[in-house]
Specification:
The chain is an alpha+beta fold. It has 9 helices and 12 strands.
Amino acid sequence: MKFLSMAVISAVAVIVATPALAQISITPREGVLRPDAPTQQIRDRQENMRRERNDPRLEEENRRRNRDRQPSAEQVARAAQAAITSANVSCRVTESKFLGKTDANKDLYEVACDGGVGYIVQASTPPETFNCLLLSAQADRVRAEGGEVAAGTTCTLAGNQNGMALLAGYATEAGVPCQIDAGTVAGATAEGNVVYEVGCPGADGYHIERTANGWKKTDCLMLMSSNLTCQFTTQEEQVSAFKPLLVGTAIDDCDAQRIHLLGQNDNGRFIEVKCASGDGFVARIKENAVEQVYPCALAIRIGGGCTMTEVATTEN
């Protein structure tokens, strides 16, 4: 037993004294500090990590990765509905599409609304919305001027390709007395209300505007008297609709060629009529009927007098 004990002791002594085994240690992975690393080495590593986090190149790369990350269809639907609702727009979203991020890193969506106009909405605080009909009209003007429409500035969802149907519905709500044959966005008011122009076949067209108190309509005859234009209404259409009013009046033999609104008050509208014969008159119209007729020579104080008929001046 003593012999065996001495042998074991001798073996253990040999192992402990072996130089190769005495130098064995665990080598840490690159960039990972050992627990027993000097304090300054740890501080240097922490400083390097801080600099990497604040590197503008890395920040830009992270932003790019976030921009390129595409959300799922379910995520887009939820986020788009939340954005349009936060914008206080009454819209039940039926279709939605993620358009990407703005330069300010804000999400941008296109939405189609059940039974109404669609929007491009920016999920900012507060959200910003852009009427699809207005965007379409702007794009048409850019193309007409030979420009190129930038991607993401018009609505492309199938549910937003129903502009004429929407305008026809708006015209009916506004009390336009025709089945419209054309329409577009004419602009917007200072209050932010969108103004639409609609054309009527063979008759005067209108500008219609949805205000806080309901729809407001203004016929193109009124607009054109203020040097505004209606692209879907011609002088021939206005005259064609006006001629039936002359039947049975003192000037029913006038072959009207042109008409012009001079003004209106509680007594009616005062419309200048230019006849093919060269004669001119001013007709006072109320409730869609001619109530009085004035020769241009006697109408010099009505809205400044006739503008389409030359009137001889009387020398005193």
